[in-house]
Structures are given as structure tokens and as C-alpha cells.
Specification:
single chain; about 500 residues; alpha+beta; Amidase signature (AS) enzymes; 3-stranded mixed sheet
Length: about 500
């Protein structure tokens, strides 16, 4: 009889199955009981009958044979809800299964139990939606898990599951990993296929997982990575990620430690934690620290506006009537994009993207690895939609019906103005960058690697005020295996708890 879900990583759970120390059926019962009892609000859907039946027939010879897993709410699995975290699609059922999910289940042998909560359409790095309410951080109830893969992070760090799927279009794997003390790997763009339906824009999203150990990430790569005809941007995979762990010679690698990558404002204690962990890692490997004068353009606004194009395709003729069902921030983002996104702003965004590409290329000419913080600070209030929320009176005012109506009217007038003066949005964006730095810094540490497409991993870097902070390590395209070895060294030399204290 198993009293609680496995507290180690997924690989060790498979080993326990193979040794006969516990069975997939026992683990599934314990997992489902814990999922039903948790106060983290990290699941949007559970399918216990199907999960128990699959666990009873699990093949433990497979890489994740019999391991209970959950899928991010934005992942599709035939027959399960396909809400994308939105009231707009609360009754929609999936008619297809994502390629990576199919591989995890069929080749990997994992047993999905349900869906974890995610921010609406993956558009925000917070853990609250109108459909599911607030998801809480297992390290401290009432604090955010980040997003968009917030429910996956809460379930894994909260001791409910050893592995959950995730995706990262602007930091949505790394941000929750940083807030919850997990390993969060964003691979090179295309590393894990996005089929069977892969949009060509905004070409920043990478699929992956949230895990407790580096070997779990590598094994997930073995199962899920590899070219797929439905995603022409996907990359081939040799399928030896786990076997190749620890094979890189890290001695002499040039490392730049830039905690506030690109000039992001960090909260007290974060820079110290990152520098301390980075110093231990550099000393343990015999790497060489180099100085880097790094300046990156902030593409947060352009990234947000550009991402809306696929959302408009998803909503179709439901927009704008569906506005009241959307999270206020998503509705505002759609209206802002309609108001400000034109050929001129698209051209400026492409110019800034090229500036970023040049800066990142020059950065990796001077350093093999770049170390930064994952998030500007530890987890903030779970109900908030930004790192530094406005006072409650302002927040209440901004969500009031009268204010919403006035905002729509104002944006309508601005839309007409931009038709006459197409350069107006750029002037407003410049002012926003000056006066809304706290809002734009949320995600600014992670977005550059999505826009450039290089791999980046968030590694636990200790605690600030009792809450986890992440250390992000970046490297060149296609050097995913090198990053996994860097993370493995950090796991061995510095270490981290696999779950939040109970």
C-alpha cells in the first residue's frame, strides 16, 4: 500500500517499478488521492477511470513506463477538454492529440491523469484565469506559480506528480521553474515538435516539461524530441540525450555572469543568489569567467503584440463579443494590438528583432555560456497579473465596467489616430518602456531566448525570503546537451530539494 505519491524524480520511480517496490496501479491511486485533496488548484481536469485502467496495463520497460503525468491545459489530447484556459472554449473537446503528448504516452509509456491549469491561451506569465481561478505556489500558498505552465509547476513542486508537460513561448517553462525550484529547459527552437498544428508565427514557442531532475528532462527529450512532418520547423534527434549526460568537458568554457540580462531591474537578494550559485558552478567545473558589456533591446511589447495574430485566428468571429469572457489582460492585449499593430510597428519590431539577433550572436562570440536570473524576484501575489501590482483601489477601478467601457472608447479613438499617424504607437511604446519598467521586466529575462531561438535552462539557485529563485543559463543554438550537462553539474555540486517542504 502506497500512502503518498513518489517524492523523487520520474526516473527513480520507473526504477522502483522495475524492482517491484511499488506498482503503477499503487502509484496511480496515491497520485489521484493527492490530486483530489490538494489546495493548490493546479488541475483543470482529471480522468481517474481511464488513468487507473492504463496504469493497470502499464509497460514498465518503457522510459516512463507507468509514471503518472499531467498535461498542460494548452496541450491537446483527443477526448479531453480543449479550453486553452479560457471561458470562451469551456465546452470544447479536443479532436486531436499533440505529437509530443502522443510520444510521451506511446513511446514513453507514461500515463496521463488529466490537465494542469495554465494562463489563458498561454498569454500571461501568471497563474490565474476566469475559468479556473487562482493556482497557488506549493512553497507558499497565496504566491504565484508564474505562467503559463503554472499548474504543471505546482503539481511537480507540490509533490503530486514527478513530471508534467509544459511549453515556453516567452518564458512559460523557465518562469514557473524559477518560482518553484524546478528544472525548466527551453530547448533550441524546434527541438520538440509542435504538431499536428504548428503556426508559423510568432516562431518562439518550444515544447518541453517541468521536472525535478536533469535526467528526467534528458529522458523526456529522448521520448518527445525529433522531426515531425506536421511541424516543418522541428529538428531531428539522435535519441541519446540521457545516455550522453555528463560527457561534456566543461573546463575552460567562457562564462559571463549578467544577472539582470539586458538591464532588467532585479529585486533585492536575487542578484546575490545568482552570483553565488554561478560562482560555485564556475569553480566546480574550472570554467573561466569573462566580462560582458551586454545591451539587449526590450521586445516585450512587440512580442506581446505579435503573438496576438494566432489568438485572433483562434477566436475567429467570436471576437469582440467574447471580450467579457476573457481575462482583462488578454482582452486589453487584443484591443491594444488592434489599435497599435500596423505595418510600421511590424517593421519596427522586425528591426528590433534583428538588433537582438546581432546582440545575441555577438554575446555568444564572447562567451560560451551566459548566466542570468530567471525572474526579477521571487514569487509575488498569486492573484496579481504583474510583478508590481497597482494598489487595490486602482486594480478595482481598472476592472470596473465603467472603466472597461471608457478604455474601449479610448482605444477606438487611438485606433483612428494611428490611421492618420502610423508612427504614434512607437512614441507611446518608448514612453511605456520608460515608465512601466516593472511590467515590462516581467518576462524580459526570458523572452530574448525565445525570439533568438537559442536554448536556455532555469536551474534552482536557492531561496530569497524563503521562496525559490532561478538561475538561467543560456548558450548557442543546438547546444542543448551542453546546457543539460551544466545543469547536471549544478545538481551535483549545489543541489536542490525535489519538492517544496510540506
Amino acid at each position: 500500500m502506497v500512502d503518498a505519491p513518489w517524492s523523487g524524480d520520474a526516473c527513480s520511480l520507473v526504477d522502483a517499478f522495475r524492482r517491484g517496490e511499488r506498482s503503477p496501479a499503487e502509484e496511480m491511486d496515491a497520485t489521484l488521492a493527492a490530486a483530489a485533496a490538494t489546495d493548490l488548484n493546479c488541475f483543470s481536469f482529471l480522468d481517474p477511470d481511464r488513468a487507473r485502467a492504463a496504469a493497470a496495463e502499464a509497460d514498465v520497460t518503457k522510459p516512463f513506463g507507468g509514471v503518472p503525468v499531467a498535461l498542460k491545459e494548452l496541450d491537446s489530447r483527443t477526448g479531453w477538454p480543449d479550453t486553452e484556459g479560457s471561458l470562451v472554449f469551456k465546452d470544447r473537446i479536443a479532436t486531436k492529440t499533440h505529437t509530443s503528448v502522443e510520444r510521451l504516452e506511446q513511446q514513453g509509456g507514461a500515463v496521463p491523469i488529466g490537465l494542469t491549469t495554465a494562463s489563458e491561451f498561454g498569454g500571461l506569465n501568471v497563474s490565474v484565469t476566469k475559468l479556473n481561478g487562482v493556482t497557488h505556489n506549493p512553497w507558499r500558498h497565496g504566491r504565484t506559480v508564474g505562467g503559463s505552465s503554472g499548474g504543471s509547476a505546482a503539481a511537480v513542486a507540490g509533490g503530486l506528480l514527478t513530471l508534467c508537460t509544459a511549453a515556453d513561448g516567452g518564458g512559460s517553462i523557465r518562469i514557473p521553474a524559477g518560482y518553484t525550484g524546478l528544472v525548466g529547459m527551453k530547448g533550441t527552437y524546434g527541438r520538440i515538435p509542435r504538431g499536428p498544428s504548428a503556426y508559423s508565427r510568432p516562431s518562439t514557442e518550444v515544447f518541453g516539461c517541468l521536472a525535478r531532475s536533469v535526467r528526467d528532462v534528458a529522458r523526456h527529450y529522448d521520448v518527445a524530441a525529433g522531426f515531425d512532418l506536421h511541424d516543418p520547423w522541428s529538428l531531428p534527434s539522435a535519441g541519446t540525450w540521457e545516455a550522453d549526460l555528463g560527457t561534456h568537458d566543461l573546463r575552460g568554457l567562457r562564462v559571463a555572469v549578467v544577472p539582470g540580462l539586458g538591464g532588467v531591474h532585479l529585486q533585492p537578494g536575487v542578484e546575490e543568489a545568482v552570483r553565488d550559485t554561478a560562482g560555485k558552478l564556475i569553480a566546480a567545473a574550472g570554467m573561466t569567467q569573462v566580462d560582458l558589456d551586454l545591451r539587449l533591446p526590450n521586445l516585450t511589447i512587440e512580442w506581446m503584440l505579435g503573438n496576438v495574430s494566432t489568438l485572433m485566428a483562434e477566436l475567429g468571429d467570436r471576437w469582440p463579443d467574447c471580450g467579457p469572457d476573457l481575462t482583462e489582460a488578454i482582452e486589453d492585449g487584443l484591443r491594444l494590438s488592434q489599435t497599435f499593430y500596423n505595418l510600421h510597428t511590424a517593421g519596427v519590431a522586425e528591426k528590433k528583432r534583428l538588433e537582438l539577433t546581432t546582440a545575441m550572436a555577438e554575446m555568444f562570440d564572447q562567451a560560451d555560456l551566459v548566466i542570468a536570473a530567471t525572474n526579477p524576484g521571487p514569487a509575488f501575489a498569486a492573484e496579481s497579473q504583474m510583478m508590481s501590482p497597482p494598489p487595490p483601489t486602482i486594480d478595482k477601478l481598472m476592472t470596473a465596467p465603467a472603466t472597461r467601457t471608457a478604455l474601449k472608447a479610448a482605444l477606438g479613438a487611438l485606433r483612428m489616430a494611428t490611421g492618420v499617424a502610423p508612427r504614434l504607437p512607437d512614441k507611446l511604446f518608448s514612453q511605456a518602456e520608460k515608465h512601466l519598467s516593472d511590467l515590462l521586466d516581467t518576462g524580459a529575462l526570458t523572452i530574448p531566448s525565445n525570439v533568438y531561438g537559442n536554448p536556455a535552462v532555469s536551474i534552482p539557485a536557492g531561496l530569497v525570503h524563503g521562496l525559490p529563485v532561478g538561475m538561467q543559463v543560456l548558450t548557442r543554438h543546438h547546444a542543448d546537451a551542453l546546457l543539460l550537462d551544466v545543469a547536471l553539474l549544478a545538481e551535483r555540486e549545489v543541489g536542490w530539494p525535489m519538492t517544496a517542504p510540506r
